[in-house]
Q: What sequence folds into this?
């Protein structure tokens, strides 16, 4: 899947048109269609990833995890050096399970 295809897919999931994305990010009209065959600049990738709430690595096809830190907003520090995308996904699911368990405990103690 090309960078453009990934962006298009995410836009569809979020109900955003490519032209709206280009406009909101101050990119030239139809400029993103060049991403079908060319790698965009780092700055454009960063802006697009931030706008769509995904990682640059996801846009480039280096991982299938859209946002490896999604759901970890409360974490103060997470060293993911050396972890594979699968490992990161496991850590995320463990953290989510812990948060859910804490919510149940909190609810029980009320």
A:
């Amino acid at each position: 899947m090309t960078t453009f295809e990934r962006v298009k897919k995410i836009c569809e999931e979020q109900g955003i048109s490519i032209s709206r994305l280009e406009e909101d990010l101050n990119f030239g009209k139809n400029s993103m269609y060049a991403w079908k065959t060319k790698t965009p600049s780092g700055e454009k990738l960063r802006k697009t990833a931030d706008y769509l709430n995904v990682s640059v690595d996801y846009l480039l096809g280096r991982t299938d995890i859209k946002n490896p830190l999604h759901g970890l907003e409360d974490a103060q520090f997470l060293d993911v050096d050396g972890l594979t995308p699968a490992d990161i996904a496991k850590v995320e699911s463990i953290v989510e399970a812990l948060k859910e368990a804490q919510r149940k405990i909190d609810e029980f103690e009320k």
